[in-house]
Amino acid sequence: MSPVTDAARTSPTWPPPAPGDVDRAHERVAALLLPLRWFLAAGWLRAATEKIISVDWWTGAALDAFLVDQRSAMIRFFPAVVDAAIAPFSLPIAWIVVEMQLAIGLCLLLGRHVRLALWGGVLLNTTFVLAGAVNPSAFYLVMQMVVLLALARRVPWRTSVVRAVGWLGAAALLLPFVRTIDPSHVIDDPAAMLSFAAALAAVGTLAIGDWRRVPALARRVASSDHRRT
Asked: Which one, of 113, 142, 111, 110, lies nearest residue 126 by Cα?
C-alpha cells in the first residue's frame, strides 16, 4: 500500500467518508423526509382517484375540456404544442396521466423507486404548469425537487457548476414569456413560476457539489504558479 503524503492528510477531503457513513447519512435524510414524501404520495393518489372515478376522463372528454378551458392561461408557446402533440391523442394521454399519477403515488407511499417517481412527478407538474394549471402544481414541483436534492449524493464541484448553468439557462429562456411580476398575480404566471423553480434547482445543484476540493485545488494552482516564477 502506498504511503499517504502529508499534503493528502491536510487536504479538506481527508479522510474520505466511509461508504457505510454515507449510506447511514442517506438513511437519516430519508427518514426525515418521510412526512413530505407521504404528503406528496397523498396528493398524487388523490389526483389519480379523482380521475379513476370520472367517466369523462376515460373517454378523453375531461382532458379535452381541460385543454380548452386552460388555453388562455397557457404559456405562450404551449398552445401550439397542445394542437400538434396532445389534443390529437387526448384519449391515450389521459390514460397515461392517470396511470402515472397512480404509480407515482404508490411508489412514494411505499418508498420504492422514489427517485424515478419524483422525476415522473416533476415531468407531470411541469407539463401542468405549462398548461396554465400553476396552483398547486408549482408547489408540488418545488417539493419534489427538494426531496430529489436531499436524496442526491455529492457530485464533483465542476459537475454541479455545469448542471447549475443548465438550470439557469432554462430559467433565462423562460423569462421572455413572463406576463406579469405583480405580486398578486405572479403566482399564477406559468413562466414566472417555472423560471423561479429552475433558479432554485440551480442553487440546490450547487449545494450538492463537493466544494471541499476547491481549496486544495487553489493551493495546487498557487504552488504551481509560484514554482514557475
From this structure: 142
